[in-house]
Amino acid sequence: MNQLFKSTVYGILRGLRDSVAGFGLIFTYDTQEPPKDVSSKPPQETSLARRRAVQQAEKKQKQAEQKQEDENNVLYRIMQCSILNGIVFGLSMLFFEYVLLPSLSVVMGYFLASAEGDSRVWMYVQPVLSALFNMFWVMPIFILSRIINTIWFQDIADSAYRQRQGQPQLISSLSKMVADIFISIFIQFLFLMQASLLRMLPLVGVSIVLSGLHMCMLHALYAFEYRWFNMGWELYKRLSYIEANWPYFIGFGFPLAAITMYPSSVYLSGCLFSLLFPVFIISANEAEPVPNTSGYSMPLFSLVVGMSNYLIHTLVARHNIPATPCKTHPTRR
Q1: How far apart are CA 70 and CA 63, in angstroms?
Q2: Which of 51, 55, 62, 229 falls between 20 and 30 A from 257, CA-CA?
């Protein structure tokens, strides 16, 4: 029991450390050692050896140029995410809430005869202004940023993976890849609903802990899924791995979950997530997950995987679509 406790704590702390490592790693992408010049060879080499040496030098030069392009692309995309989510979206919400609305309240006070009239009118004006601001600015920017961020997150993940790991090894079949993506999104949505329902349980403390564990696992899955997808791992293998090594991934997902769970505004939570998530993509790409030596898995995804399988099989049977079932249920190692 003591060894189990130590193993669990170590995995959580290691995941926590690796998750925040990305804040330092993003500044090391332009400090790689330049490739050595292999074009100069001893004079006794044959012409065939010289040609091979030249080809190898050209190949390494292209790889170095690709790596430099990936380095610049990672930093450039992270800067774009910071500008879009931090300045355009986040600061505009703060400006409206803490600068524009208080200023309008003060200005209205000068045109109203009494403080009572001021408060009564402002009680009706403030919700209308907030609704208009959310409708015509926050909602469109939120939707647009989610679409743009999805593209940029993928670009950051692909560039970081190529620079550190090499060329991605995607799922071989295009149909399996498309099915994997859509089923993964559906399972993540169901898992988020599962976490939200647990948070509504009338058990003080227990509901927060259970919901928090779910959100930690979900945010870790968000970050690592780019890397695992580029490694060619199918959905069942990704979920099986994260369930088997749950202490590490709970620790890895904790910082992002803690930051995004408690803002009262869904827009502010989404803004913080989009602003910080690229760093956790970098962390996941560089991390070495610690295996769970206890042998006890945490099958939190089993319920939603079973639900998704049932819904998909029901839909296929209802429309008489000849298809083989997708292997999406996590297998135990």
Answers
A1: 10
A2: 229
Residues in contact with 211: Cβ distance below 8 Å, sequence separation at least 6, in sequence order: 195, 196, 198, 199, 261
DSSP, collapsed to helix, strand or coil, labels residue 265 as coil
Residue 311 forms part of a structural domain: yes
Q: Which domain holds residue 291?
A: 168-333
**317 within some domain:** yes
Residue with tokens 């998704």: 308
- Contact criterion met (CB below 8 Å) for 244 and 250: no
Which pTM was predicted? 0.76
Does residue 297 lie within any of the structural domains? Answer: yes
DSSP state of 166: -
pLDDT in tens, 164-191: 777 888 777 788 888 888 899 899 999 9
Is residue 309 assigned to a domain? Answer: yes
Three state DSSP letters for 173-210: CHHHHHHHHHHHHHHHHHHHHHHHHHHCCCCCCHHHHH
Per DSSP, which regions of 198-283 are E strands?
A: none
For the chain, the domain total comes to 1
